[in-house]
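Reply to dn_fold:

You asked what the input looked like. This is it:
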Amino acid sequence: MSELLSQLITPEIQAAFSVVVVLLAILYILSIVWVARDAYMRGTYWYVWGIVALVPLVGVVAYCLLRPPLLQIDRDEQELEVALKQRQLMHYGECANCGYPVESDYVLCPNCHQRLKNLCGHCGHALEPAWTVCPYCASPVSGQRQAARRAPQPQAAPRQQRPQRPQRPARPEE
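and this is what came back:
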């Protein structure tokens, strides 16, 4: 039987087997390095995943199934985008009465006509209800709602009654 085995295992097959074993060893080491590097880039405990990856094939498969879906840099970018969207939304608000989205400079809700802000009686700018002075013209805001009270409009002078003309007597028809 050893003669049969020595005939099957030729030096060429032994060399091919050695090359395959070396390639598998390199692949194994590279898979551990890849797992540790990828775990580091995803913001997880890279050294723990490196130890898990030491278990041949099972460790790499476990990491691929359990790794975080996003890289750390992608997560940071998403957080920045969310912060930017929140900052953009700060220019908008909701009507306290109906919940309709309104812009920050609206005086009335376009949906329910609820008064959102007061108007300065001096310069006409929109004022927050809590403000006691107009930041645009420095005039004090009275306790009453300035928005409800518009600047007084000049009233037309009362018409003087014209003296009535005496009515002409009707002409007799001829």
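Residues 132 and 141 are 5 Å apart (CA to CA).
Hope that clears it up.
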